TrEMBL record:
<dbReference type="GO" id="GO:0032259">
    <property type="term" value="P:methylation"/>
</dbReference>
<keyword id="KW-0489">Methyltransferase</keyword>
<protein>
    <submittedName>
        <fullName>Class I SAM-dependent methyltransferase</fullName>
    </submittedName>
</protein>
<dbReference type="InterPro" id="IPR029063">
    <property type="entry name" value="SAM-dependent_MTases_sf"/>
</dbReference>
<feature type="domain" description="Methyltransferase">
    <location>
        <begin position="149"/>
        <end position="283"/>
    </location>
</feature>
<dbReference type="Pfam" id="PF13679">
    <property type="entry name" value="Methyltransf_32"/>
</dbReference>
<keyword id="KW-0808">Transferase</keyword>
<dbReference type="GO" id="GO:0008168">
    <property type="term" value="F:methyltransferase activity"/>
</dbReference>
<dbReference type="InterPro" id="IPR025714">
    <property type="entry name" value="Methyltranfer_dom"/>
</dbReference>
Length: 385
């Protein structure tokens, strides 16, 4: 279905500027207009000074023009290219392939699909060496994070990188980590986002001993612009709504509380890696055999045995969460956080508010899934409240 062009190009912009980019090509032309080059390709490269993006413009009758851009020069160059009347953009990232075609009416026809095999290979190849914060960063030593936690935090930052918004012009970026625990992610995200401009970060946790520990830690590290509060994800009421909401392994429905709050606040970016999916399991197990016999026949074989039931309901929980976010104006994807060998809780829901209306029929699909399983997810309940 065609979409408005400006938000679709903004989505492409986010991918071109993100750390996940593998390759992008702009080509073709729009009706009645000619871009400055018939084809432009962007490819990131690692050089000793860090990451760069090589932009190669083909030119009619002349050798291609190649520029190598650093992080400071890239946004301007990308904006210039997006302003050119190219007819097509093809973007490969490590987590998705996005193809945008401009229709005769000047709208965008966008296909969003799985990453290309070459992009997956690139991701696997360099996953080990790409770090947002170095594994020996003193922060990790101070918070006592083990290697598995470091990998999760680094992977989380890697997923945040393409969508993490820059601070607004007139104030610091407001970030909250709900269910912050020992503040591994809170402090790492604060450190990393602060490299882009001023940030105020709040960690929220229900446990006062945890929050006391986090406050002492932040003070010991001399970290500025971070505070911690004792509260529940679903009740914490900040003076001003956060721009970015994070939740790494917030227990069970604490993830739903975090997502519901993020929607209410109208947060621009939400990243949640759920864990301990008990909500739907509780509802299904409460009805035991009847839950199986009354479930949609297509699901019964997956509900009969405990371990398969758990996996089905884990997947259903996160799929419904993603769809509910889409229904509330968020472009959402579910991606792998980190190799399963490091943690089985490796699904990450990543949502960026674009206020686009949800795909036709999505509300009906969500209702049908709930009906087939005989459940009402916590997030649906919280968003209705
Ligand atoms: C598994 S730990 C994860 C901590 C941290 N995000 C991490 O990944 O290291 C879950 C944390 O969520 C907190 N928690 C549980 N329910 C919560 C709620 N409703 N609101 C806020 N925090 C909650 C717990 O106290 C605990 O510290």
């Amino acid at each position: 279905m065609p979409e408005p062009l400006a938000p679709a190009l903004a989505e492409v912009r986010g991918l071109l500027l993100g750390d996940d980019l593998v390759r992008a090509v702009a080509a073709g032309r729009r009706r009645g207009a000619t871009p400055r080059a018939p084809r432009v390709e962007l490819r990131p490269v690692e050089v000793s000074a860090g990451r760069r993006v090589v932009v190669t413009e083909q030119r009619d009758g002349a050798a291609p023009l190649t520029r190598t851009l650093d992080a400071a020069a890239l946004p301007g160059a990308v904006d210039e290219l997006l302003a050119e009347p190219f007819g097509n953009w093809h973007v490969d990232t490590r987590s998705a392939t996005v193809q945008l075609r401009v229709t005769k009416k000047g709208e965008a026809q966008v296909h969003r699909g799985a990453p290309a095999a070459t992009a997956v290979a690139a991701a696997t190849h360099d996953r080990a060496k790409r770090h947002r914060l170095a594994p020996d960063d003193p922060l990790f030593t101070a918070v006592g994070a083990n290697a598995a936690k470091r990998r999760q935090v680094d992977a989380f930052l890697g997923r945040l990188a393409p969508v993490g918004p820059p601070p607004p012009a007139d104030r610091p970026l407001r970030v909250v980590d709900l269910g912050c625990g020992n503040a591994y992610l809170t402090l790492a995200a604060h450190r990393w986002l602060s490299t882009r401009g001023p940030v105020r970060t709040t960690g929220v946790d229900v446990r006062d001993d945890v929050v006391a520990h986090d406050r002492a830690l932040a003070e010991r590290l001399g970290e500025e612009g971070v505070d911690f509060v004792v509260d529940a994800a679903g009740t914490w009421a900040p003076a001003e709504p956060p721009d970015v909401v994070l939740a790494l392994h917030a227990c069970d429905t604490a993830t739903d509380e975090a997502l519901a709050q993020a929607v209410r606040w109208g947060a621009r970016v939400v990243l949640a890696a759920p864990c301990c999916h008990k909500d739907l399991r509780r509802q299904v197990d409460a009805r035991r055999r009847e839950a199986v016999t009354h479930a949609d026949p297509s699901l019964r074989s997956m509900l009969r045995d405990g371990i398969l039931r758990q996996r089905l309901l884990d997947t259903a929980t996160d799929a419904l969460r993603a769809d509910l976010l889409r229904l509330h104006g968020y472009r959402t994807d579910a991606v792998e956080l980190v190799d399963p060998e490091h943690t089985p809780r490796n699904t990450l829901l990543r949502a960026v508010r674009d206020d686009r209306s949800a795909p036709d029929g999505l509300a009906g699909e969500v209702a049908a899934t709930c009906e087939a399983l005989g459940v009402e997810p916590a997030l649906a309940r919280l968003l209705r409240a």
